[in-house]
């Protein structure tokens, strides 16, 4: 089972010239729906889940460490970006104040959280997926990416801190030393490392933005700093994940050998996606948006 913790920070992005997005992949939507049904059946047939582990002391300790780690990460990210936890009051003229007060500034309304919501409520949310037979890796997987935590490379977009945790549902134990490969398109729908019609990244074959690998730690956790992905025609907004085991780390900070134990994709909450795509440079993307319901099985 995989737990996913996603922290997107809506910040002003560095402006760069937008690039033309590729036309997207081609999919048989009937096949996709059949795949969704098969995945639902696989998930419902699973004998164990994280909830069945919740009574064990080890799992309660693991969860407590997860809450503390996520809360600390959120505080650290806010501090680095000078995001104040509590609002500051400034002198305003009456007209400015009336405009300000007419706007709903609650950023957590969809979860019914407030500034007084306990951290163990916010950061213990269980967004979990039982790993079913592998999803497609898509046509834009590239081998030989570097082991690194920050994959942004200056790409404009909403900063995203992504945490993924692997748990063995047969033992309720975390899975360490899994090398997790992530990749996604940039804010305008372009992937690095490829050079095909409609998808021409700056740097072409040599570009590496928004791609990287990290190994899970003793708690089965891997984290990345990236940006919230854009979209392209025919696919819902998504981030790719690929898990490797028994690999060899090479001198050039890449991996070799081993086995691919899972291929999957993360799909994103539609409310969050819509809010982000209203900002620059996402709003320069003119390609049609595909919803989660019209794409593959999502874990959001």
TrEMBL record:
<dbReference type="InterPro" id="IPR000627">
    <property type="entry name" value="Intradiol_dOase_C"/>
</dbReference>
<dbReference type="GO" id="GO:0008199">
    <property type="term" value="F:ferric iron binding"/>
</dbReference>
<protein>
    <recommendedName>
        <fullName>Intradiol ring-cleavage dioxygenases domain-containing protein</fullName>
    </recommendedName>
</protein>
<dbReference type="Pfam" id="PF00775">
    <property type="entry name" value="Dioxygenase_C"/>
</dbReference>
<keyword id="KW-0732">Signal</keyword>
<dbReference type="GO" id="GO:0016702">
    <property type="term" value="F:oxidoreductase activity, acting on single donors with incorporation of molecular oxygen, incorporation of two atoms of oxygen"/>
</dbReference>
<dbReference type="InterPro" id="IPR015889">
    <property type="entry name" value="Intradiol_dOase_core"/>
</dbReference>
<feature type="domain" description="Intradiol ring-cleavage dioxygenases">
    <location>
        <begin position="138"/>
        <end position="236"/>
    </location>
</feature>
<feature type="signal peptide">
    <location>
        <begin position="1"/>
        <end position="21"/>
    </location>
</feature>
């Amino acid at each position: 089972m995989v737990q996913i913790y996603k922290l997107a920070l809506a910040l002003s992005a560095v402006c760069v010239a937008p690039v033309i997005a590729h036309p997207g992949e081609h999919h048989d939507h009937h096949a996709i729906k059949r795949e969704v049904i098969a995945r639902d059946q696989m998930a419902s047939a699973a004998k164990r889940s994280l909830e069945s582990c919740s009574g064990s002391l080890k799992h309660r300790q693991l969860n407590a460490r997860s809450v503390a780690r996520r809360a600390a990460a959120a505080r650290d990210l806010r501090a680095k970006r000078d995001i104040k936890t509590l609002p500051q009051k400034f002198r305003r003229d009456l007209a400015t104040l009336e405009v300000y007060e007419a706007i709903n500034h609650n950023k957590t309304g969809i979860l019914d959280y407030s500034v007084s919501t306990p951290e163990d409520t916010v950061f213990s949310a269980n967004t979990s997926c039982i790993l079913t037979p592998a999803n497609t890796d898509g046509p834009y997987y590239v081998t030989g990416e570097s082991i690194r935590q920050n994959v942004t490379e200056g790409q404009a977009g909403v900063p995203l801190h992504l945490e993924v945790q692997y748990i063995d549902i047969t033992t309720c134990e975390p899975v360490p030393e899994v090398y997790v490969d992530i990749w996604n398109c940039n804010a305008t729908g372009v992937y690095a490392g490829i050079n095909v019609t409609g998808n021409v990244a700056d740097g072409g074959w040599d570009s590496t933005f928004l791609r990287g690998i990290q190994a899970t730690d003793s708690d089965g956790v891997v984290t990345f700093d990236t940006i919230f992905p854009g979209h392209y025609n025919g696919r819902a907004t998504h981030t790719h994940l690929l898990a490797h085991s028994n690999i060899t780390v090479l001198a050039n900070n890449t991996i070799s050998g081993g086995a691919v134990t899972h291929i999957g994709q993360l799909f994103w909450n539609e409310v969050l996606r819509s809010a982000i795509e209203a900002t620059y440079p996402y709003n320069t993307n003119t390609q049609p948006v595909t919803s989660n319901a019209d794409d593959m099985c999502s874990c959001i």
